[in-house]
TrEMBL record:
Any Pfam family: Pkinase
Name of protein: mitogen-activated protein kinase kinase
EC numbers on record: 2.7.12.2
GO-annotated cellular components: cytoplasm
Amino acid sequence: MALVRERRQLNLRLPLPPISDRRFSLPSVTTTVATSGGISAADLEKLNVLGCGNGGVVYRVRHKNTGDLYALKTVNGDMDPILTRQLMREMEILRRTDSPYVVRCHGIFEKQVVGEVSILMEYMDGGTLESLRGAVTEQRLAGFARQILKGLSYLHALKIVHRDIKPANLLLNSKDEVKIADFGVSKILVRSLDSCNSYVGTCAYMSPERFDSESSGGGSDVYAGDIWSFGLMMLELLVGHFPLLPPGQRPDWATLMCAVCFGEPPRAPEVCSEEFRSFVECCLRKDSSKRWTASQLLGHPFLREDL
C-alpha cells in the first residue's frame, strides 16, 4: 500500500510535453456522443498542448468556422482499467453538471477503432491557480473563494464529492473567473451512508479522515474532505508555499501523513487579516464534523464584498 501511495505523490506536478507551433487536424471519429451546438471532431483544429498526465493530453483547439477556442482532453484507449474508470466517471459528472463555477463540457467524441475518447471543454485562458501561489492579495483570493465555494456547494447539492481540490484543478480566465475541473477521482453518492474516505486523489491535499478514518472525531461529513483541501489551497496561494511543510521541502507520503494526522492544522500568519485567519481555521478543523460547509463558508466575514 505504501508503494501505491508513494506513486500517487509523484503525480503532484505533471510535466508538460514540448509545445509545437505545428497545426494539425483531428482524425475522423466513429462515434460522437453528447455534443453541444452541433460541434464535431472534424470542425476542430489543434493549436498547441496545454498539459498532459494520467494517460491523456489536453490541447487548445479552435473551431475552424467560428474561430471559438476550446480545450480538448484526449485519452488513449490503451490505458489501464483504473484510468478507464476515472475517464468514465469524469464523463458522467460533466454530463450531469451545468454551473458557471464548473468547467463546461461541449461534447464527447469516441473513436471506437482505437478506443480513444476526447472531451471538448470550455477554454480557460488564464491557466490554473497553481501559477498564482504567493502572488495573490487577500481581496483577490476572497473573489476566488466565493466562486470555488459556490461550485462546491452546487456539486455537493448534487451529491458529488470532488476529492481532488488543489490549485492545478482550478481553472482561471482573463475575467478572473474560476471554475472547478478534473473529476477523474470524484464520486457520485448513491446512498446517504456512502463513504468518501478511500485513498484517491493527491495525497498532499487529503484531509485527516481520508488518511485515517478513525481520526475524524465524531460523525464524519462526506463532503468535508473537499473543504479541508480548499482551505489548504487558499492558505497555499496566499503564503506562496505548501503550508504543511517548511518552504522548499518536498512532500512525501510518510511526512504528509504525520503532519496531517498527528500535527496541528496549519494557520494563517499573524500578518494576515483576522477574517482570513478565521476563514482558514473554519476550513482546517481536524474533526470533519466541525468543519464549516461550503454554504456556511459563503457567509463568513472574510467573503464580505464590502471589506
